[in-house]
């Protein structure tokens, strides 16, 4: 077996806890950013909504947000991603 086969698939290259940026895109809507804040605060109660970076698409139909969460583990980060991708207002999460 080579080294790659011996590696634990659960090991992460990310050291936790850490601040982790997530990009979220959805249809432009007046409540989009606040809705994303609400979702994230269920996992990170100290999330700073003022630190969100907002970028409208060139046509204005979509809004991209960059949110930086405090992730405490890979499971915690996965849970945040699942909650965001499962939300009906969200089109893409990176």
Strand content: 25-35%
Helix segment tally = 3
CATH homologous superfamily label: ACT domain
Shape: elongated
Could you give the distance between the termini? 33 Å
* Average pLDDT reading: 91
CATH architecture: 2-Layer Sandwich
Radius of gyration: 15 Å
Number of strands: 4
Uncertain residue ranges: 1-9
Number of domains: 1
| CATH topology (fold) name | Alpha-Beta Plaits
Portion in helices: 25-40%
Biggest pleated sheet: 4 strands, antiparallel
Adjacency order of strands in the biggest sheet? 2-3-1-4
SSE pattern, N- to C-terminal: HEHEEHE
CATH class: Alpha Beta
Describe this structure in words.
The chain has three helices and four strands, in the order H-E-H-E-E-H-E. The protein is α+β, with helices and mostly antiparallel strands and 94 residues long. The protein has a single domain, classed as Alpha-Beta Plaits (2-Layer Sandwich), CATH 3.30.70. The chain has a four-stranded antiparallel beta sheet. The longest helix has 12 residues, at 74-85. The termini are far apart.
Blueprint of the fold:
Layout: H1 3-6, E1 18-27, H2 32-41, E2 53-56, E3 62-71, H3 74-85, E4 90-93
Antiparallel strand pairs: 1-3, 1-4, 2-3
